[in-house]
Amino acid sequence: MTALFSSPDEVVRRLADVGYLADEAIATTVFLADALGKPLLVEGPAGVGKTELAKAVSAATGAGLVRLQCYEGLDEARALYEWNYKKQLLRIQAAPSDQGWEDTHDDIFTEEFLLERPLLAAIRRAEPTVLLIDETDKADVEVEGLLLEVLSDFQVTIPELGTVAAARRPLVVLTSNAARELSEALKRRCLYLHLDYPRPERERDIVLARVPGIEAELAEQLVRTVGALRALEIKKAPSIAETVDWARTLLALGLDELDEAAVARTLGVVLKHVSDQQRAVRELGLPADGR
To answer: For all residues of the chain together, what is the average pLDDT?
Structure first.
């Protein structure tokens, strides 16, 4: 397997080129996941850049991104593969009346009728691939058994077609918001990286890198305000992406200072629950009418 990165320092440089500022821990873990061919489990609160890390690795290396979005009720048919039953039925109906079932069976269980889902698609790709299994903790426990098979041997068994082994192992990134504890069996197969909200200095640098034209002083004001909002007991703390959106909002409005009035006017960019906005207005002493 050809490595995507030659060193942690290269990870830092190439991710920075696509706008993702990686610290030493992130760069080292990404390098090792690539070098060892191990899946990478990235855990942490919502909005700290877990999904963006996988996207950035894909963009930095030119690898194709295949994404499996997990949710309650996700099953094998949606994650791995399923048969195109409607097309199979049409083929059965069109078969000659004297054709036996064995011939019909062999005819309809072929590649022509196979519908790839993300896991199988990633396994079958011969090109460099990043497989993002997003919000793994939202899937049912049964899905972890499917992931164990795929991530252990990087192969999939389709009873009608046989075993499909990876032509080239994808770099696998699993993300989790820790809504539930993932199984120890799954964790054993992965390298682990915990992400939290960045230090103010790093978040300021992210804003400066992602929002051309913003002044450093305004970026620092913005990051301090976001930090104050995250310290409140609110339903949903602002994500890094929402910090960046807030910076772009201030530029669009032509604001060069983030005073209390500006915060109150634009609070909906970062706080998406009315109770959170009310708490911020009350505890930060913001104008209630947005002026």
So the answer is: 92
